[in-house]
Amino acid sequence: MKMQPIMKSKMRQLDLFVDHRSLFEKLCDEANLYAGFAAVKKNGGAPGIDGVTIEDFKDRVEKELAQLKKDLESWSYKPNPVRRVEIPKPGNAGVRLLGVPCVRDRVVHATLKLLLEPIIDPTFSDHSYGFRPGYSPQKAVAAAKQIVDRGKEYVVDLDLSKFFDRVNHDRLIYLLSGHVTDKRILRLIGMILRSGVMVNGTVLLTKEGTVQGSPLSPLLSNVVLDELDKELERRGLEFCRYADDCNIFVRSPKAANRVMESISKFIEGKLKLKINREKSRVGRSKDVKFLGMTVINGTIAISAQSMKRALEKVKELTPRGTHMPLELTIQRINNWYKGWAGYYLMTQYPSQLKRIEAHIRRRLRSRIVDQQKRRRHLFRRLIKRGVSRKTAAKSAYSNKGRWALSATFALAKAYPIPWFINGLGQEIRSNDRMKHWFGLDQWIKVT
Q1: Strand-pair partners of 197
Q2: What's the CA gap between 376 and 197, in Å, rounded?
């Protein structure tokens, strides 16, 4: 459903004059609520405990927003508990607890973010790169490299244990009060923080933490951790922080150990957060990962852990003994790999990307071998694909298993790189940097 002309007119008017209304009055404005809904729709997501999808909400958006405005103004609005979702962490390191608010509540969260971000974000440190306009993981890694290049190659790698689950509500509201004078906004955010979580049909109270899954949580997390940023700046330390991932750079191991001890006391004592002692560490930059990357010998590379996880993901997407059509498997790999490679393009070692691509092709060739069932079927398939009878027989009738066969000359001849090529889509074609790194063997598809 398209926004009505009167609503568009209101949104245009907001750009034409300085709005002197209070923050709460702006929150209750239907034009601002519609902007919040537009942000929610763009991000997508599953329904909350009420089962209402974004499409359902969109079909009756004017009615929903009018009622939401009325409920907010009369203070009859009450946030619903969020739906608990458990997401496995990489490497079987437990689960990450996410919360899915109802679409109606997400609209309120998103609108609050749109109103508060222009006020609060300019006060944040320039060394904070997470969830901020104009900042990105790529910029954070590039900044880390610049610091290491200046001779500060020892890193204090801080890991906050369950950060989003341990944010102290009272302290967060106190910090927000330094930016927001409208107490109604502070009261509403307090209601959101304490809205509870539904687990197996039971509503549990939330006495601490922010919801991972709320559009507002990233901004609130930066408000909490801005205290850490300011403390590090006061001490004259160079650092890069992306959300709860923070690296501090110093010149010697002695200084690194000293900083680790003192900053840990500050975080646990004043911020009321907890350091994960097992994951936090001190080391040279080449041995420490930051946002999946490592600064090594003055260059940026994908970390060993990230490469290992990528290889494991390829294995997961190309399982043995599956009845899934090869084309569907390739589609799943493409969906994952385009996103993965798009992020890790910051590496200055293209061979790392090529290693993953080669592993994907070998897994698929192994899958093709497995599908033939009989050695004579494989022999005929190889001949059909242009392999000589002698070469085909040498591979097909050998004692090698499927994985060993997938690396033979016969399989590479029958299913070469061009066989896997997928003509680059228009979106990718327009990105010269991706073409430069990837070449034409990047995307995989049977032609």
Answers
A1: 82, 204
A2: 59
According to DSSP, the β-strands at 82-88 and 197-199 are parallel
Q: What is the DSSP letter of 214?
A: B
By DSSP bridging, strand 154-159 and strand 245-250 are antiparallel
Cα gap 131→147, rounded to integer Å: 22
Token readout for 253 is 């191991």
Tens-place pLDDT, residues 190-204: 999 999 998 888 888
Q: How far is the C-alpha of 107 from the C-alpha of 308, rounded, in Å?
A: 38
How far apart (Å, rounded) are the C-alpha atoms in residues 240 and 46? 33
For residue 404, the one-letter residue type is: A
Centre a 10 Å sphere on the Cβ of residue 222 and count the other Cβ atoms it contains: 22
| pLDDT exceeds cutoff 80 at 217 | yes
What pTM value is reported for the model?
A: 0.81
Tell me: the pLDDT tens digits for 40-81?
Answer: 999 998 999 999 999 999 999 999 999 999 999 999 999 999
Residue 238 in 3-state DSSP? strand
| pLDDT for 337 | 92
Burial class (CB in 10 A: 0-12, 13-18, 19+), 38: middle
To which H or E segment does residue 310 belong? Answer: helix 304-317
3-state secondary structure of 259: helix
Structure tokens at 108: 């309120």
Structure tokens at 329: 């498997």
Identify the DSSP state of 128.
Answer: B
